[in-house]
């Protein structure tokens, strides 16, 4: 064989490791309709459960008549709160330390609330059964405005009406949940009162919904003979579901198996525990049959989860020449009927206090009031690390408003206040330690890329032309520089229901030199099977194509806290690298033995261990793996496996500079996005193509939120946007072309320097789109207009400004 051995470069390329735009291995099945989603799970004898839901937002439930429903052919059972009460399952604990009705117990508190669970032979019989259940309601006054709720005599939560203490401290009113504070209020007030310039604004981030294409659902299957409960479900955190299911049901944890199969998008919607899961499990235990529950679109938009709904009253102060001196923020957070926000336990407002953003602000204060209203519970991190998108929107709007107040260019104001590269690690006034960043470099690159000066000149000319009546279109330049905070843990700060937020990876290298790795996270479309194999390829020298990645089965995967808050790369990705290093350490001993040298005399090189100074003497990882199983090596156990549970020392702080250039027709409110430039810095990049896909997807969700998507209620609590006729989902038609770019500032504490990126485009995108709308009208006196900026609202801005 006269073929030349591969060069070192060819060996590196063959691994498809870090930095390679490897094609997604999961796409073969996704693009051919061969995915296996929860609704694809069909077990022998499976039956179907579905909910009777409340038509009222607030009503007393006087009686539930199930007799007629039970006569419907195919209907097997109808569960109500009375049936769940003996099991203590009529209420369930929420992730936020509150409790939530599983089925209506005496009253209903939001439209679409689960009232009874009809179990039938199939979905259609269940629907007929639902129609036959008769519920007697007595309507009660409805509160949909959190400010009114805090003043009203109407008691929403009668179950805790007299409790003056909640999970997060004192409650000052029967509809108040908590006041959570961070920072130094006295010093902040002092800084603002003595400042040369102060800007004040109410910034509202409206209620919206993650709305994954696949709705939530599960199949619960109780095997009474063996005492085993199996639950397939759309779970972003399967192990947590197993632990919670065990604690609630009393079934020992080893007898519960939770499986998240393919998931059609999560976006935070699939983190929480919903009544559908509990009712399916109970129904399976009662009937001894597998029970499926799958939401339809209206169920999903009405009942499981919501996001945002933050009223943020801000004050920001500065010197006359634009140096920021203080930031004050008072939030009124509408949590709906139950506090079911999905946040780490100690943070009832998530990581909202990252709201000093990318700026070096000496003093700051945040106070968040959680309030009950007659809306659906949820408060999930829809593509943002626990309220980070609210924080980014708030600070990026406040910067714009301050720029107006100062009569200063908003790009210059930002640059003047950025945390400088030499200040990292940087501790913010609200207590976060930013691990790394280089904001000025990213910002300069972004401004240059779009010819910022040229755009401002064009904008000024456009304003003049508009005033002369030569055009009816305005030009907006939407600027954003955001800082994300992703990767919860560390365990000492972050837990969910007491479970510390580490993550894990377990690797088995097979004798022939291929491998399987299992993680505690679960992909919902992010491409983990592709990218985590790349981390390993670079760490252990086995080609990514020879590594299977498996997630989502609690019987096989190591315990982990799941995928949300862009934590998979920062936490499970780190565990993967660390487990890989354990493999490598053992491989080194084996290689040294095989090469008959001391352990320290061999070194790792791409896919092999070589004798130092004698590169022709080496053992490949494939040879080493084979020896690990088939050769007796003194002092070394057979096999080549490792597991790592990784508790990150800190979170990672990705950042980005986004610029949106938008044309707005003042007569119709129609916008056209001429250019969208997105520079992301997520540290070391594992797969640039996957990152670009993440950015495209996140920006499109940001576009949706900023420009039209909304969960709206009328004054009696009717849900006005529970179908795709009313809830805006962008199609290819509305989606603009994006230009992506990057800088690379590795995280100093992550084993491979990677930071998360999945949520960044949503966090940075929303203020970029919204700032573009605002900026178009800046010359005509607009300061603040609430999202979503749909055509009617944009037209209204122009109209109100007399344009
Ligand atoms: N990466 C790379 N590099 C770096 C980073 C990252 O490459 N540096 C990649 C990885 O590997 C993956 C991705 O990218 O694959 C992502 O990652 P991250 O950032 O780490 O994240 P994760 O954890 O994985 O994920 C999560 C996210 C979230 S959170 C969300 S919303 C969303 C995102 O993710 N979701 C979703 N994205 C997505 N995509 C899809 N397709 N789907 C979905 O669902 Mo939450 O909290 O849940 O709300």
Please describe what this structure looks like.
With 803 residues, the chain is α+β, with helices and mostly antiparallel strands. Helices cover 29% and strands 25% of the residues. The chain contains 20 helices and 34 strands. The strands form 10 sheets. The protein has a 7-stranded mixed beta sheet, sandwiched between helices. The protein has a 5-stranded mixed beta sheet with strand order 11-19-18-17-12. A 4-stranded mixed beta sheet has the order 22-32-33-34, with helices on both faces. Strand 33, helix 18 and strand 34 (739-742) form a beta-alpha-beta unit. Helix 13 crosses helix 14, helix 15 runs parallel beside helix 16 and helix 16 (568-595) packs across helix 17. The mean pLDDT is 97. Residues 236, 265-268, 381-383, 524-528, 531, 563-569, 682-687, 690-691, 694, 697, 754-759 line the site of ligand PCD. It holds the Pfam family MoCoBD_2. Its EC number is 1.2.5.3. Keywords: Molybdenum, Oxidoreductase.
What distinguishing features does this structure have?
803 residues; alpha+beta; seven-stranded mixed beta sheet; five-stranded mixed beta sheet; 34 strands; 29% helix; binds ligand PCD
Tell how many strands the DSSP assignment holds: 34
Q: What proportion of the residues form beta strands (DSSP E)?
A: 25-35%
Kindly report the spatial arrangement of strands forming the biggest sheet: 3-7-1-16-13-14-15
Ends distance = 79 Å
